[in-house]
């Protein structure tokens, strides 16, 4: 197996050719054995795996990946190259970097997913999670329509969906509150919330509200004085009558 001695692009092309030849084998056993041998050869040359990994973006631009099956194979190839030191899983940092390379423009929730993984995931990414995310990116829309909670998704994907639901729910609540505040500002003194009461007089601030309060006060406290003017009793007793009427 001849490998280029220099150049990231050439190393990536050679590795991908070897990979495609292996996965076209007749049996799964032959495929597994061939991929294991490919990994050993790559790890046997210092810096080769990183050279191949760094050459992935240019390799993608040189390949026709519009075909679904061809892209699926390439996606699996990236996982193989992302493994380090003979490990079966890949580190979070390596996985996020790879996802941003290969799923850019193909997964609308890519940024949110990568941010979620970097913040909450504690363990390395398994091959099952890697493959299931590709399926998730195809089935599920940005609003999470198409997600099947009863499906066989990895826990990490399920946790991500719950995380996004909380974000969307919080956003809906904020929008509803802003709408209510806008309604309240448009119709001053009207509270759009269910079970609301009239504005307390102690909180009236505008001149119009103060005038209304003054009119209300006058109508209550000056009513006895109106009756007082109609009474023939002397001023001394009229004052007493006014005070007495107010307490009846």
UniProtKB/TrEMBL annotation:
Pfam assignment, any one = Cullin_binding
Question: What lineage, starting at the top, does this entry show?
Answer: Eukaryota, Viridiplantae, Streptophyta, Embryophyta, Tracheophyta
* Species assigned in the record: Zizania palustris (Northern wild rice)
The terms describing its cellular component in GO are: ubiquitin ligase complex
Any single GO BP term: protein neddylation
Q: Which InterPro entries match?
A: DCN-prot, PONY_dom
* Free-text function comment from the UniProt entry: Neddylation of cullins play an essential role in the regulation of SCF-type complexes activity.
What molecular function does GO assign, one term?
ubiquitin-like protein binding
Give the DCUN1 domain ranges. 1-165
Q: What is this protein called?
A: Defective in cullin neddylation protein
> PANTHER family under this entry?
DCN1-LIKE PROTEIN 3 (PTHR12281:SF31), RP42 RELATED (PTHR12281)
